[in-house]
Every structure is written in structure tokens, then in C-alpha cells.
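Morning!

This is the sequence you dropped in the shared folder:
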Amino acid sequence: MLNETIAKDLLEIGAVFLRPEKPFVWASGIKSPVYCDNRLTLTAPRVRNDVENGLCELIKKEYPECEVLMGTSTAGIAHAAISAHILGLPMGYVRSGNKDHGRQNRIEGKLENGQRVVVVEDLISTGGSVLEVVDALREAGAEVLGIVSIFTYGMKKGLERLKKAEVKNVSLTDFDCVARVAAKYGYIKEDDVKKLLAFRDDPSDESWIGAERL
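The structure's back. C-alpha cells below.
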């Protein structure tokens, strides 16, 4: 299945790195058993091919009316460009804020009022940054069909934000799938899966760190 193929790809190149025994510390201070850097997919041609073809497959299946791809800045730009090239669609990207010079654009690339847009993102955690992109596109008059992403944590906060904003997201793979595949191929122990899913359910609750292995 595609989600398992992508999960295995990400684990093989270290784009998703699991370390439940020695958690990473995010900028927010949250201790996490996972570190994700999907930029590494761009430097691994075989994995990049799987990712871009997978994104195109999702776009054609889930958003057949798509007219324009818009990447998130900066991680989604390359994936939007490659996918748009494969699909023969125009693309652009949305900055995190307006430029402070020139035309002070936030949206780069031509976007017509009413065009049907799909946002391309590499990673969704709490959903805050990608929803800012959706808001900017909507304010510019676009009809945002939804988001396509490489990986999503499936965190409750992120899911609730997307639902409230009435934004659909489809991902190539997710945290649950990566955890299962990681255990299957020996990246983590089978009993670590429960710890990972406990983190996913509530990242602010650090009790998963000291949980006894069953």
C-alpha cells in the first residue's frame, strides 16, 4: 500500500527518525519521540520519485477539479513544483508573510479569482501554519479544495483545527502507519508503538516517557 511504502521510504532515509528512549525537544519545549525532516526526500531520488508520484496520485483521486497547486513556504514549494510539472498544472507558493519590498506579495505566482487550488505541504502537526496559507488563499479569492501532504501526525489539535476551518487534508502516510512499519522493520521495538501513539494522543503529557514496557 502507498502509505506503507512512503512510511518505509521516510524511515530508510531518516526523514522520519524515531527515538522513544531519548526524546527530542521541540522549540515549544515538548519532548517528542519523533523528528521529521521531509526535506531529505529531495536528496534521495528514489524516495523523491515515490513521494511526487504519490502526491500526484492523491491529487488526481481526491481533487480532480484542481486548477492550481500552491506550495507552503518553504518546505512545500519543491513538492508543489515537481507535482505541478508531472500533472501539467500551474503552481505558485505562499509566503509566511508579505514581502517587505517590491509589490509586497505574499502569494507568488498567478492566481485568478475563483480558481480551484490545492495546497501542497510536507508535514502537518498542529495545522496552524498550513491553515494560515489556506486563509491567505481564500482572502485572495481562491477556492481551496484542500491540502495534500507527505506526512501528518494526526494530532487531535491539528484534526480539530482542520475540521473547524472546513479544510480537507489527505496525506501519503501518517504517524500511526510509520509506527507500525518502524516496528515491523526493526527501527523500534514492538512495545514502543504504544508509547508513540500515547505521545500522538497528547504531546503535552510526558507520562509516555516513563511508561513501562508491557
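Headline: The chain has a mean pLDDT of 92.

More detail when I'm at my desk.
O.
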